[in-house]
Every structure is written in structure tokens, then in C-alpha cells.
Amino acid sequence: MDLNDAQSDPATCHTPVFCTIIPPHILDNLAQSDDPARHEPARRTLEHDHARRAQRREIAARDLTPGEPDAAADKPKRTIYDARHQEDLPGHKVHAESDGPAKDVSVNRAQAGLGATFELYLKIYGRKSIDGAGLPLNATVHYGRKYDNAFWDGERMVFGDGDNDLFKDFTIPVDVIGHELTHGVTQYTANLTYEGQPGALNESVSDVFGVLIKQYALGHTADQADWLIGADLLGPNVTGKALRSMKAPGTAYDDDVLGKDPQPATMKGYVRTTDDNGGVHINSGIPNHAFYLAATALGGKAWERAGQVWYDVLTGGKLAKDAQFADFAALTIKAAQARFGAGAEHEAMVKAWTQVGVTPK
Predict the structure, then answer these.
(1) How do residues 124-155 score in pLDDT, each as one tens digit?
(2) Which residues does the annotation mark as catalytic?
(3) CA atoms within 13 A on the CB side of 237
(4) Is-contact 302 225, C-beta < 8 A?
């Protein structure tokens, strides 16, 4: 993200992030392939994403402060659109909240994923939609041709169909939907700057809640969960199991075309780069792994204790827009003690951040 595209008055506006689930480093590798079937979709996707980041300034100029929730804010208000393989948003309205199942499975999956995200935030954390005030959830399916990505543009979820070679339909993984919508939650709360360590925290928070939404939907405890992001997204021709692994960052894929998963699990592997806004999709592996360590140490349902601590920090008003890993770590330790006392939760946070090499400020 070019920060010059997204300047806004912090007193009146929350800056929307144009975030895509497929990181630029994967698309860059694909774009260099000698096979036109591989490089052409990747190059089109990269060109598209660059243009969308430029267009995001129009949304950034708007006041996105949520209002007061109305009486119906505890129920989702979902609308699904069909781009019909064009790139005009939102596309054609094809499904409303009151409609029954559609014939189009992508529409149904998008509807279900929006609902699963809404449900976790409401039932577990008492949050009414991503803005806390019942914001309608809109999504567009069948975006572009062989578009290898999904994104939150500050107003809606948008899903490509993938190329059916390396990537499947982007409506398939519920954690991808949860990840992208959580960028909206961050947008309306801490509004973390999308660059460097705060940008990596922005990405990590989305991974954390994306995986929690999947675990909640499946009823999985921390020890039952796979701790993978996008496990159902990779096509049959990819050597890998997911886009990212919170359990073992750096092991999600190792493919001749996609490259090797570059995520570090600890600060010893921290990547200093000017690419990808300072490595926001790469270094997010470090706080991701810290969450995994804390959640599995505590056991049970990860959304109940570790997830609650992360949510308290994200929404508590003390997380600065330019927060570093050490700042976030300190806040999780304080939040654990504030909510649960000086017990297992507090100890799990201290130990997890120590294990990934982050010293709380």
C-alpha cells in the first residue's frame, strides 16, 4: 500500500486498507513463469491490484465512523452481487438477506462466510457487524477473469474465481472471508497503519480472527485445529497445503512456481524489505506464531481466552496506529491480566512472546 494514497484525518476517518489474501510475493513469482497459463493471470491480477490501491483514496476520503446500532443490528444484512467476470463494482445484485439458497454455489459460500464472520463477532465478542453498529455486509463474486485474489476494499468483499490451476474459487475458504472482513474491524478500531510492523500486525490480526472463525464454525478446539490459512484454496498443481501456517510459519508451501513460504516464526528471521509495504504478509508470521503458542498452551476453544485477549487489545483504544510488535505484546499481557487475573492466561502471553523473540515494551 502506498501510504500517500490513504492519508486521512484520524479524528474523523478510519483509513480503509486495500488488502488481498494472495500476497504480492506469490503473484510476483507467478508473473515470472515462462508458462503463459501461469504468468498471464498473475500479471493481470497484479495490474488490477495496483489500480485498486490507487482508487482506494476515494474511499479513504469518506468519514467511516460508525453510528449507533439500531434494533436490528444483531442480525446480519447480507447482499451478494455478481460481477459476471467484469471488474465493475458492485456488479449485479443476485441475492438478498431474505432469499433462500441460490443455484450459484459461489453466492451461497459467500453468504455463508459473511454469516460465519458476523456470528463469531456477535456471539463471542458482542460486536454487531464489523463496525460494531450493524454495518451491512456486501460481497461480489465472479470478479474479473481468472482473477487470482479476494479483497476487502473498505466497503465490500470481492472474490475472484481463481485460475482453476493454482488457485480455486476464493469463496471456498471461510477463513479467507473472515480474514478480509477483519480488516474492516481493524479499520473501525485500531486502524493500524499498513506498513512495517504495524502493517504486519494488521495482517496478523486478520489471520488470527480468520482462523478463529473457521475453528468456531467447525467446532474445533485449539488442539484439533489445523492452524492453516487458505487450506482449501490451493489447486491440485501446487506443492503445498495452504497460504500460511500459524503453527509452523515458513512451511505452508514449497512450490516450483509459487516459490517457498517466506514467513519467519521468530524475530531471528525477521525480514527487512521495502517490498509488500515492508513485508506485511511475511513478518506477520511472528505475531501469528505467538498467538498459536498462547492459544495451544491454554487449550480448549481458542476464541474464548487467547482470542478474547486479542480482541480486547484490538478494540480497547490503547493500540496505537503505529504499534510495533513489542507494543502489541505488552498490551496482550496487560489485557490477559485485566480480564483473567495473574493466572494461566497471563503466563501464556508472556511465554508466547518470549518464544518468538519479542520483548514487550
Answers:
(1) 999 999 999 999 999 999 999 999 999 888 88
(2) 180, 281
(3) 11
(4) yes
